[in-house]
Design a protein that fits this description.
The chain is mainly α and 252 residues long. It has two domains: 135 residues, Up-down Bundle (Four Helix Bundle (Hemerythrin (Met), subunit A)), CATH 1.20.120; 116 residues, no CATH class. The chain is 79% helix and 0% strand.
């Protein structure tokens, strides 16, 4: 288990370094998304390890990279939507901003700090192993993952559930499964249901966020009616997918 954990950490470090190089050279439009996905996977790997040496520092560093890149990714997604839906001028304005943002992320102090701490983290794990701090590691991880499922279960059965919170909880559970697949004991349909629910709630969140932006950014006004319609459809789809997820994974 510890060997697999160290190997996973090293693999994530290599992916982050590759993303950094791609951002620096602006080689492709998926670099920022891949960076954020890799950071999210790292955070999912770390969450069940809280309390172990080095974990808190690494979580903080990963969180800071997430905070730095969230508004940039939001702008990137919006620009792609505008370009696809007949608003080239509004799209180009945002794409021009992104052209400067990519190399800035690559050379940011937040990413440098994350890479520095991540590089040292396998040594912390090995030291913790020698000190006997990683006994019953699989039991510790299963317990933490179980708590995440319990939170999602409670949120799904809350009549006044918050879609924002549900989206975040589903992300945590889904990436937790990806981080520790050897500990996955869920029904076969659980993972695709989680992925579908995350996608539906993501579509809803995009519309919600863009409508809020349109109140401050006049060039988005031509899209408002379309976003309101799309948001209503996304709400309906999300509710249907969440019901399927509940039936698959939880006892109502």
């Amino acid at each position: 288990m510890i060997d697999r954990l160290v190997a996973h950490v090293l693999g994530l470090e290599v992916r982050l370094l590759a993303c950094q190089a791609r951002l620096s050279e602006r080689t492709d439009p998926e670099a920022l998304h891949d960076l954020r996905t890799t950071v999210r996977r790292l955070r999912s790997l770390l969450r069940p390890l809280r309390g172990l040496p080095g974990v808190e520092q690494l979580e903080v560093a990963a969180s800071e990279v997430g905070d730095l890149t969230t508004p940039l990714r939001d702008r990137e997604v919006l620009a792609a939507y505008l370009l696809e839906h007949g608003q080239p001028q509004a799209a180009q304005r945002r794409m021009a901003q992104m052209a400067k943002a990519y190399p800035a992320v690559a050379t940011s102090k937040e990413l440098a700090q994350l890479l520095m701490i991540l590089d040292a983290f396998p040594r912390f794990l090995r030291a913790a192993e020698r000190q006997g701090l990683l006994k019953d590691l699989d039991k510790r991880i299963k317990k933490r993952l179980g708590k995440q499922w319990k939170k999602l279960d409670e949120a799904l059965h809350d009549p006044a559930h918050d879609r924002h919170r549900l989206r975040l909880l589903i992300k945590r559970v889904r990436y937790g499964i990806e981080a520790y697949p050897e500990l996955d004991r869920l029904p076969k349909q659980a993972y695709p249901r989680l992925k579908s629910a995350q996608g539906a709630l993501g579509d809803w969140h995009d519309c919600w966020q863009w409508l809020a932006k349109a109140e401050q950014e006049p060039d988005l006004q031509p899209c408002v009616a379309q976003w309101k319609t799309a948001m209503a459809k996304a709400e309906q789809k999300a509710d249907q997918v969440l019901e399927k997820l509940d039936k698959t994974c939880f006892k109502s």
